[in-house]
Specification:
73% of the residues lie in helices and 0% in strands. It is mostly helical. α2 runs antiparallel to α3.
Length: 238
């Protein structure tokens, strides 16, 4: 039991590092985590604890650079994430606080659901697995059509096709072993691209208010936690 606690603490620190590094993702650290597991001869159960603790920690800390570093220009404020909108309104600290509340709330709600429904997960997955690709196609089609304007729909379709072709090329590539492909791919697509966009933008951040009061009611917080948790569960199954 002590070894699992120590691995959880170690995973939290790894998640802290990856979360605070701009555009870093836990998947980019998988080669390092696997190297650690081989070096210390960890069992599959211990490795799972390390990965889960790292991922959970990274989710919480990642919102800090995501909100403050990935800030858009004021002209695009209406089309960006809510955290960025709050940042441009001088409410960046409130965005971080809401993120923490939502994360902890969804974690508690998720643990309750897992406790109650875990005996049925395997059966549900076997039942839905033959039809998951239809659900993914429907989600992709909805995302493309939600652009509404023909030019944007065409651009979104082109991006999806290019990403699919890229995935086929990468997954069938013999340049690197399969277990080492995620690191360069995710670093290039999520890491460098975000940093390049951030450097190219000329956004000006307003002074941030150090008022930690929330502009949202408790009822709305609970509603958001519930809906976000359900959406996360659906995404997890897909």
């Amino acid at each position: 039991m002590l070894d699992l606690i120590l691995l959880s603490i170690f995973g939290i620190f790894i998640g802290l590092f990856s979360g605070l590094m701009p555009s870093m993702h836990v998947n980019t650290l998988l080669p390092l985590i696997f190297s650690i597991s081989f070096f210390f001869n960890l069992t599959s159960y211990q490795l799972a604890v390390l990965i889960v603790s790292t991922a959970m920690s990274e989710i919480f800390f990642n919102f800090i650079p995501s909100i403050f570093i990935g800030a858009p220009e004021e002209g695009t404020a209406l089309s960006v994430l809510p955290g960025h909108r709050l940042l441009l309104e001088g409410r960046g600290y409130e965005a971080i606080k809401l993120t923490v509340i939502g994360g902890i709330g969804s974690l508690i709600f998720g643990l309750i659901l897992i406790t109650l429904l875990s005996p049925y997960f395997a059966s549900f997955y076997k039942l839905t697995r033959p039809y998951i690709h239809f659900a993914i196609i429907a989600v992709v089609a909805f995302m493309v059509l939600s652009e509404r304007k023909p030019r944007k729909i065409l651009s979104a379709t082109l991006i999806i096709l290019l990403s699919g072709i890229f995935g086929l090329i990468v997954l069938n590539s013999q340049i690197l072993p399969q277990q080492q492909l995620l690191f360069p791919v995710l670093t290039g697509m999520f890491g460098l691209s975000t940093l390049i966009v951030s450097f190219s933008e000329t956004s000006h951040l307003p002074d941030q208010k150090e008022d930690f009061s929330l502009g949202i009611s408790t009822k709305e917080i609970l509603k958001s936690i519930f809906l976000g948790s359900i959406a996360g569960i659906i995404v997890g199954f897909l």
